[in-house]
Design goal:
single chain, alpha+beta, two-stranded antiparallel sheet, 2 strands, elongated, disordered N terminus
């Protein structure tokens, strides 16, 4: 599924000017990506969330300490949660 069909339009645009005249316009990041970034930022600022993700990754891998693999798994889970939140926000704004 393309980003455009999923969110409708980009969250921002990059405008290109030459001699004070608009000469081009490129789509920026998608609204979904922007919302996921904001959700990720909020999650990273909350130590309870980051510690819970780390504990879950360690438990899932069966290790007692944060290995590189556990760190990558925790990061992947946080990214997936951020996109899940972004998807929920996109659904909610259509209500």
């Amino acid at each position: 599924m393309s980003e455009t069909s999923r969110e409708g339009r980009p969250a921002s645009e990059t405008l290109e000017f030459y001699d004070e005249k608009l000469i081009g316009c490129e789509p920026g990041i998608s609204l979904r990506d922007w919302l996921a970034g904001m959700a990720m930022q909020g999650g990273l600022m909350n130590p309870n969330i980051t510690e819970a993700r780390k504990a879950n990754a360690k438990k899932e891998l069966g290790v007692a300490w944060m290995t590189e693999e556990a760190t990558r798994l925790a990061e992947k889970q946080m990214a997936e949660a951020a996109y899940s939140m972004a998807d929920a926000m996109l659904v909610a704004r259509k209500l």
